[in-house]
Amino acid sequence: MKRTVSLPHKRAEVYHAFMDPILLSGWLNVPYVSTGHGELHLFEIEDWNKNHPWKIRCFILDSIRDESFRIEKDEIGDHHKPGLDLRLVDSEQGCELSLEWEDSYFDRLAKELLDPRGHLRLGHLIAVETTDASETP
Prior knowledge:
By secondary structure, the protein is an alpha+beta fold.
């Protein structure tokens, strides 16, 4: 599956939100996230508070800072492992986030990333972080 959404934020800000566990947790409105920069970094999301708990556990692969990365399901074995590709491209309004995945394992994550309510939360988090950074001496 492939989906694209326009976000009114700079590409670097959105990429940073993917790599910062506090920002990503706030964006997705989930209590637990592990993420970060670097190849083979754990990318894990858990939500046990909602009516429909969910969890994904992956590794970050093929990361290009401020542009794209791939997450691949953490599975044992040499077989093909499901993955999700995230790509950020500049647009007139900010950036476009493109998601591409081939397995239902990533359906819930894609749904949450495409949810307009999450985009509002992300905007608020970016605004707060930008304000905090500008106030630092």
